[in-house]
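Supplementary notes (optional reading)

For those who missed the lab, this is the record we used. Protein: Checkpoint signal transducer rad25. Length: 234 residues.
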Amino acid sequence: MKWQKKGMRRDLLFLLLVTTQSGVFLRIVRSHRGFAQFEIFSRAYCHIIGTSSPRTRLIPIIEMLEQQEGEFWMLETARHTHKTIEAELVNIVKEMFDLIDNDILPFQYTSDLQVRFLKLKGDVSCYLAETSEQSISSQYLHQTLLAYTAGSQIAHANLPPYDPCCLRLALSFSTFYHKNLDKEKGFKIAKEAFDCGICEVEDLQLETITEINTLMQHLKDNLTLWSSDENDKD
């Protein structure tokens, strides 16, 4: 039985190593340098992160199993694979940020797309902050804060508070703040977005009204949850 488990883990490690070299969706990102097709850009990002996330979560489990069974040569292979995947992901994300900062945002004249790309940058940074080693996690937290703050400034100045771009950003920004920096300020960001949005959304007749209502409900749910947590502490 033990040799079967070894064989399965070896096959799994081999597949993980092979899949780190996949660059199909990365080529899609690179091919859109100079003009912003948000849907394609964001789907490429989702694929890259989506394929990396299960691997980064799975390898520590493999490392633990190998250490328990004393298979130290396999343990080193697993650790090397882990570092390879993390390095690949960081390089891809760095290239994405360069594209957003230098080839997209300077040429985007619509506020909603500027907000969407800044939110995307913040989302990616937030993911890396949660999954990276502690030594570089603070760097990604700072990048997340900068991206969400820049997006919020554009949204507040140019978009109505019920705009889905504003609400999606407020939802992410408030959750990020509440979880990582300052619970009180995270609550304040969510409440301001909800209060400003609810004042204007009731009389709207828009195609996006269903999405708006859904986002407003998510904000309300978070506010209820966070208030409940604070009351439990008291």
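If you only remember one thing from this example: The two ends are 53 Å apart (CA to CA).
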